[in-house]
Amino acid sequence: MCDILLIEAFYDGSHRSLIDLLHRTLSPRSILVTLPGTKWPWRARCSSLILSDLIPKNENNSLKYLFCSSITNLSELISLRIDLRSLKKIIYFHENDLAYPKQNEKQEQRDFQYGYNQILTALVADICLFNSFYNLNTFLDKLGPFLNRIPSPKANIQQIRQTIESKSQVLYYPLEKSLIPIEIKTDKTGPLCIVWPHRWEHDKDPETFFSVILELHEIYSLTFSLIILGQSYGECPGIFSEILNKIPSSYIRHWGFAQSKSEYEQLLIEGDVVVSTAQHEFFGVAMLEACRAGCIPIVPDRLAYTELYPNEQHRYRTQTQLLNKLKEYCQKPDYVRNRLPKQDTFQFEWEKNDGIRQKYLQLFENNISN
């Protein structure tokens, strides 16, 4: 009997991976309804209207649970589909728009609706799941200043925060089993291989990363290889085309989106270090996938990274510290490969860690309270 409705309004990337993992695990109890993972702003604004037509009628009240990401405005969906109101409604926050960095005041005013939709969604949900404590805490902390932008009369911010906080919890994003066997190589040779596996967008700050890479090459004349992964969902920062004219082609081991998951995983295995320069990160699936493949992480000492990467040796505070780390590692690649401590990813692994798997499955058990 199908009693679980799984919804994903942006069916791509980590959103797609999580909902597919749940669907495979919960089947035949679950049905899955999705929208294409394109045009994110339109999905955030309008997905409820489209989904209300796509979701099957809850005949005989057979559906008991609803799980979706926070890109869907749940308050709109429930208003349009009253037959879904009685379901246990579980929302997963891959990200929160209240903490998303805006480039200017005009964008902040234009995009107010995204954060507002997420607040309404959290209020009507029965359980709010966040993929990190950083995600949860920034959502709660920024809720007040965000709602205070509304002209008088003001909303009851304290009550809204208490309501959301009382039904919120952190449930780390699970890493599903890799498609290819991961055997961490101990016999690598040659120059240090640096991996950058992020979306090609400004909030991942590729400008800082490539500035450091150029300095390693032009000022210190160091040899290394680059694996640049990820994809662009919109306007691509110009630095990606500029850097190709400044770095020798022999330094580029891979450039661009991997065409398959197995190719992606193989490229991660080839890497020695994986770098983030993100200005906006609530979890960072790609970084942890690279760590599982054996890469040494180099992450900024901010955002969710401070929580997820407890070893201070893996973190940096300034661009100069990032440069110095990479400079040292380029000079001593064998030391990096054989001596530096790696990041343990066991707590996130769906197949290996029964604890994280059970936490997800318990969401869909009758004896678990809202």
TrEMBL record:
Keyword check for Glycosyltransferase: yes
Keyword Transferase attributed: yes
Any single Pfam family the record assigns to this protein: QTMAN_N
UniProt cross-references to SUPFAM superfamilies, sorted A to Z: UDP-Glycosyltransferase/glycogen phosphorylase
Molecular function, one GO term: tRNA-queuosine(34) beta-mannosyltransferase activity
Coiled coil: none
Keyword field: Glycosyltransferase, Transferase
Catalysis: reaction(s): queuosine(34) in tRNA(Asp) + GDP-alpha-D-mannose = O-4''-alpha-D-mannosylqueuosine(34) in tRNA(Asp) + GDP + H(+)
EC code: 2.4.1.110
Residues covered by the tRNA-queuosine alpha-mannosyltransferase N-terminal domain: 4-175
Top EC category: transferase
Family: Belongs to the glycosyltransferase group 1 family. Glycosyltransferase 4 subfamily.
Protein name, entry field: tRNA-queuosine alpha-mannosyltransferase
